[in-house]
C-alpha cells in the first residue's frame, strides 16, 4: 500500500496541474485528483506506467466534469475565466518557476483554454504543456492518433 501511495505522490503535482488547467478551479481539481487516488487504490496490480495510468484517469474525470459543468457555465451571464491559482510557497520558488506560474495564469491563456471544447482542451494541455506524444494523447482521449493531431 505504501508503494502505491509513493507512486501517487510522485505524480500528484502533475495530476493537479492537469486537472486545474482543464477545470479552472482549485476545488474541482482537488476533487478530481482525490477521485483518481481512490481509483488508483483499486487498480489492478502491475500497472506498467503509473504516470500514464493516473494521467488518463485525471483527464477522463476532468472531461466528464467539464461535460456536466458546461450547463452551469452556460447560464452565467458574464465572461467565465478560471480562478487564478496562487501557491503559498511561491516566494520560495526559483525565478524560472515564478515565470512559469505567471505564464500559466495569464488571462489570455485562461481565455484560450475556455474557448476550446473539453477534448480539445485536454489534447492541447497534454501535448503542449505536458509534452505527451500524439499516441499518448490518443490513448487518453480514446481516439485515433490522427484525430488527436487534429484536436
Supply Rg: 16 Å
- Strand fraction equals under 5%
Main sheet specs: none
Level of helix content?
A: over 70%
Structural class: mainly alpha
Number of strands: 0
* Series of H and E elements: HHHHHHHH
Tell me the span between the first and last alpha carbons.
37 Å
User: So how many helices?
Assistant: 8
Shape, per Cα inertia axes: globular
Average pLDDT across residues?
79
Residue stretches low in confidence (pLDDT < 50, at least 5 long) are none
What features would you describe in this structure?
- This protein is mainly α.
- It contains 8 helices and no strands.
- The protein has helices at residues 2-23, 26-41, 50-74, 95-104, 107-115, 118-129, 134-141, 145-150.
- The longest helix has 25 residues, at 50-74.
- It is globular, with a radius of gyration of 16 Å.
- The termini are far apart.
Write the layout of secondary structure elements.
Blueprint: H1 2-23, H2 26-41, H3 50-74, H4 95-104, H5 107-115, H6 118-129, H7 134-141, H8 145-150
Helix pairs in contact: 1-2, 1-3, 2-3, 3-7, 6-7
Short précis:
This protein has 151 residues and is mostly helical. Helices cover 72% and strands 0% of the residues. The radius of gyration is 16 Å and the shape is globular.
List keywords for this structure.
72% helix
